[in-house]
Amino acid sequence: MLARSAITQSARCATSQIRGYATLKEVELRLKSIKNIEKITKTMKIVASTRLSKAQKAKAAAKMIDQADATFYDVAKTAEVAEAKESPKHLSIAITSDKGLCGSIHSQLAKAVKRNLEANPTTDIVAIGDKIKMQLLRSHPENIKLAFNGIGKDAPTFYESSLITAKILEELKAQDYSKITIFFNDPVSSLSFEPSTKPIYNPETIQTSPGYNVFEIDPEGKLPTDLFEYSLTSQILSAMAQGYAAEISARRNAMDNASKNAGDMINRYSILYNRTRQAVITNELVDIITGASSLD
Amino acid sequence: MLFRSVAATAKTLPRTLNTISRRTYVEAVENALKLQFSLPHETLYSGSKVNQVNLPAQSGKMGILANHVPTIEQLSPGVVEILEEGSNTAKKYFISGGFATVQPNSVLSITAAEAFPLESFSQDNIRKLLTEAKGKLSDSDAVVAAEAAITVEVLEQLEAATK
Predict the structure, then answer these.
(1) A1 or A214, higher pLDDT
(2) Can you give the three-state secondary structure of chain A, one letter per residue?
(3) Which of the listed residues A63, A92, A274, B58 has the most CB atoms within 10 Å of its CB?
(4) pLDDT tens digit sequence for A278-287
(5) What is the dotted CATH code of the domain comprising A50-253?
(6) What's the pLDDT tens digit per position in A138-168?
(7) Which pLDDT score is estimated for B15?
(8) Pfam families per the record (chain A) (predicted)?
(9) ipTM here
């Protein structure tokens, strides 16, 4: 028993010694890879920072469009009709992007959509962006009716959102849904964002709004339909622009934190590396001196 | 007159303090047309006072002055003319289509997919693109033909406007 434990003890000593020498190399490699990671995260942060100003501009312009739409619905009091409808058929349009590495921004939006799904389990979902699609596919695969990817490479354009709208109108007959909600990330400030929603009203709701008669509208024309299609496009665009701005600033923050963490790790590892190296040198000196003194 | 408006402002002041800042601005100036002209990627006018705006509405060309009846109009491709306060020449923008809403408080909101100043177009380019698009009108692919028809409509308007 004693002999056995002595053997294992000595074996352990041997491995620890081997490890002691190997760590220097290992620490060096580790240090190098962390330095590379830091370089990557720093670059990503700089890229995000340069894109941020463009994204902010797109967000501001998109907000103006939102405002123009919102004032019309405000005056027409469209929301009242939409609220009054019983057992409405819901459609949720959830907007994120394809890219990750930006903190919890996509999962928070997914949570908001899921919370809404708990209240209205029959809601149909349009997922714009791969991230939200993957998250919702796990929990509610049967609710997703349409999904788009290739979103978020650059600031969104009107052309993109018209293509998306055309598909939604064609495949889902969006005008038949009595309640359409867009889920998107609203950049509250450059440091924070908030998943929020906005409603889209279908042609029938627009036409039956109590304040609709305030406006002088040609009764022959199909203005409610046209207005619905146009505002769906512009609202999707503005939600995409806001989501894009939120994502870019979230990515900048995430990459900033990652670079800081990498910096901390580099500090820790370079101290460890220097100490280990010193230990190796001391060991070698001890060996040399012992050898020299044995010759005397 | 001046006294009255001062009195009116004083009366509205406690009320406006409670409302949001945009509202106060709207209430303070009553008799001018305020233009919001926004594109998805840019805001050209954000509530600045103008004398008159001429719009290429689908129901025909129309001019909007202050205190216009609230209305909402779909715009066709054409020129939006803006007569700014204190300037005699109209600013002309060519738009590809959009919507114009006159709110009850004399605010005109124009939203368009694209808008460019009229002088930034080159006539040679328009002509070149027009012949190109006309060639595609009788394409066998229905989508290409439909797109060409829209392009021709826009370009013909543009050609007429730049003459």
Answers:
(1) A214
(2) CHHHHHHHHHHHHHHHHHHHHHHHHHHHHHHHHHHHHHHHHHHHHHHHHHHHHHHHHHHHHHHHHHHHHHHHHHHHCHHHHHHHCCCCCEEEEEECCCCCCCCCHHHHHHHHHHHHHHHCCCCEEEEECHHHHHHHHHHCCCCEEEEECCCCCCCCCHHHHHHHHHHHHHHHCHHHCCEEEEEEEEECCCCCEEEEEEEECCHHHHHCCCCHHHCECCCCCCHHHHHHHHHHHHHHHHHHHHHHHHHHHHHHHHHHHHHHHHHHHHHHHHHHHHHHHHHHHHHHHHHHHHHHHHHC
(3) A92
(4) 998 999 999 9
(5) 3.40.1380.10
(6) 999 999 999 999 888 888 888 899 999 999 9
(7) 46
(8) ATP-synt
(9) 0.72
Nearest to B46 among A57, A64, A237 (CB): A64
User: Among all chains, which residue has been given the structure tokens 């692919």?
Assistant: B141
pLDDT at A14 over 50: no
Residue B5 pLDDT more than 90?
no
Q: Nearest chain B Cα to A221, which residue?
A: B59
Contacts of A217 in chain B (CB under 8 A): 71-72
CB proximity B86 to A under 8 Å: no
Total CB pairs under 8 A between chain A and B: 79
Nearest to A75 among B36, B40, B103 (CB): B103
